[in-house]
Amino acid sequence: MPDVTSGADGLAADDLALRQELVSVARRLNASGLNQGTSGNLSQRIPGGLLITPSSLPYEQMEPTDLVAIDWSGMPLNEPSRRPSSEWRLHADVLAARPDVQAVLHCHPIHGTALACHDRGIPPFHYMTAVAGGDDIRCAPYATFGTEQLSRMTVQALHGRQACLLARHGLVSLGDSLDQALRIAVEVETLARMYLQALQL
Predict the structure, then answer these.
(1) According to DSSP H, which parts of the chain are helical?
(2) Sign of the dihedral defined by the CA atoms of residues 3, 29, 49, 116, in that order
(3) Is 123 in contact with 136 (CB distance < 8 Å)?
(4) I want to staple 34 with a disulfide (CB 3.0 to 4.6 A). Which of 27, 109, 168, 181 is the partner?
(5) How far apart are CA 181 and CA 184, in angstroms?
(6) Active site residues
(7) In this structure, what are the phi and psi dihedrals at residue 165, rounded to the nearest 5 degrees?
(8) DSSP SS3 for 62
(9) Which run of H or of E encompasses 179?
């Protein structure tokens, strides 16, 4: 795994490998069924800020050079070829608030989002809720996408956790790596599906 927690200003020397990994995980995200179309976004901590997926570009068309390196205020760290995801603020604020985290994944899975559409998190109905770092998986209150209010509420919902739902929106998961963030998102969506079916009984 590339060292993206320290280094000179700008991009790390092994930037290309990191970009290739991010594109690979983004494509796995859609292939897993956790995300559809151009929705969802991923980021990875780099020196001086974060590397994030671009806005409105299907993952299957995405190339490493399409990813955007930005600082904590959303300003580009180099000459970008595309605009960063509209959710860049959420990613930047979560990474800034959580120095223990290297990667942030945001997606719109069917079952997790169905619960979030009713402002419901996932209670400790199953022992695997611990995968998110606690005895439940919280749902952050609703806020408009891309806003500072949404990122602030997301940071609060993620306190002491590795994942949360976003009311009427989707799911956010964190990890020491992009791969771990994806694995946690898969587990949370599985729990959401089980919880919805258990509610029917």
Answers:
(1) 15-31, 88-97, 110-116, 148-157, 178-199
(2) negative
(3) yes
(4) 109
(5) 5
(6) 87
(7) -95, 160
(8) coil
(9) helix 178-199
